[in-house]
Amino acid sequence: MDLFELSIRNVSRLIAEKSISPVELTIQLLDRISNIDAEIHAYLHVNEHALEYAKESEKRIMSGDPLRPLEGIPIAIKDNICTIDQPTTCASKILEGYQSPYDATVVSKLRKAGAVLIGKTNMDEFAFGSSTENSAFGPTHNPHDKSRVPGGSSGGSAASVAACTAFGALGSDTGGSIRQPAAFCGVVGLKPTYGRVSRYGLVAFGSSLDQIGPLCRNVEDAAMLLGVIAGYDEHDATSSMLPVPDYVKFLKNPSAPEDIKIGVADEYLGEGIESQVRKTFESVIAAIEQQGFTVRKIPLPHTKYGIATYYILATAEASTNLARFDGVKFGRRSTKYSNVLEMYLKSRGEGFGPEVKRRIILGTFVLSSGYYEAYYLKAQKVRAKIRKDFEDAFQKVDLILAPTTPEIPFLLGEKMQDPLRMYLSDIFTVNANLAGIPSINLPICDSFDKLPVGIQIMGPWFQEEKIFVFAHYLENLFTKE
């Protein structure tokens, strides 16, 4: 197997054995990025300090210091997560060249764990999109078929892992922005429970929905990476004080299949799902039944309202969060204005792309006088019902299985002129965010078009270990096959 296709665990072992040094690894990876990323465009910025960090790791190893969990491992960061040593642009012209004065909490934790931050990845502008085509700096291409999208909004992070230009990456998930690109790029991507990972230093899209999570080549790597970044943070009032378990340890002592009940809801298998995705999902259900798992039909009756509820609440929160980008405090300021109001209007008009403007307008509308109760308040009530559906379901089953996306990766440009079709790309993922539950994408096999297909495993609040154990079991099962 090629060095760059190895898991974090295996590369860590090579570093511990001194078969390769962090500096050698980083140099080779930087060369790989320079050779192939022009075609894929997974990165917006390659970290000019990466070699310095690799040298620090190498120095620790040579002096005999204990190895940290990610010692010398190159990790990529989505460009809406603040880093003090690289620009944080959110793939938007309004933040072009912006340098954060601090690190996000997750970035600080990666540094303490010994990771080499290799670069910042492309994304849909301010995380608004499902294809990474809304980036102000050009789209990312799917490494499996460069004529197709990698998904979004964390498409650059997913593509960097799939193209083996990073050993792992961080993304953010507001309505599926980790899991959907993970499915399109054939990698593992986890949205943790809301509050499991600090959002301090994440440029907010929907504050009640956003969550940072890992994208990796296998389940064990995702478990390891989550263990590094999870935990309470005094800078984030929404972060949980619950202790962080050793997720990797759970993988070594899995439950017997007969002890695990899997729920399947018809609401995730209705109209609009492509035949390749349906057949893959049905094959997974058949396989786990043969292994002795109990599969039960469960009702999730408010699932059908998820996409409408999500786009009301997410745009409302987005319009509020993006009000700070006004050309005054930071970011781009227009040079063509004669008064303060004109400066605001032109700075935002020139700096924001079409999708950002669309969502700001939608969000401002649903929060406006006369429409707040008709749209926003009603959406909050439906959100509570969606959460109650999951609470009831987890009284009967341990985990819920569903397709991650209704389709295989679509062609670049195919949906750009039809925002509603683009929004429906998230139809299977938004409900986990509305309820705040953890959910993982697991790549299962190639579709009939030789493109990745993923399944989604959802679990109870703060029980990521259950998801990891089952996902790891399936990963081994389908790898053996």
How would you sum up this structure, described in words?
This protein has 481 residues and is of the alpha/beta class. The protein contains 16 helices and eleven strands. It has helices spanning 8-16, 22-40, 50-62, 105-112, 155-162, 179-185, 219-229, 247-251, 275-290, 306-321, 340-351, 354-367, 372-393, 419-423, 430-435, 464-480; strands at 43-46, 74-78, 116-121, 168-173, 188-191, 211-216, 261-264, 294-297, 399-403, 439-446, 452-458. Strands 1-3-2-4-6-5-10-11-9-7-8 form an eleven-stranded mixed β-sheet, sandwiched between helices. It is globular, with a radius of gyration of 21 Å. The mean pLDDT is 95.
Number of helices: 16
The biggest beta sheet reads:
11 strands, mixed
Work out the number of β strands.
11
What is the CATH level 1 assignment of one domain?
Alpha Beta
CATH-scheme architecture of one domain = Alpha-Beta Complex
- In round numbers, the mean pLDDT is 95
Task: Provide the low-confidence segments as ranges.
Answer: none
Shape: globular
CATH homologous superfamily designation of one domain? Amidase signature (AS) domain
What percent of the residues sit in helical stretches (DSSP H or I)? 25-40%
**What is the H/E order?**
HHEHEHEHEHEEHHEHEHHHHEHHEEH
- Rg from alpha-carbon coordinates: 21 Å
Structural class: alpha/beta
Strand content of the residues, in percent?
A: 5-15%
**Strand line-up of the largest beta sheet:** 1-3-2-4-6-5-10-11-9-7-8
Q: What is the CA–CA distance across the termini?
A: 19 Å
Looking at the structure, the CATH topology of one domain is Amidase signature (AS) enzymes
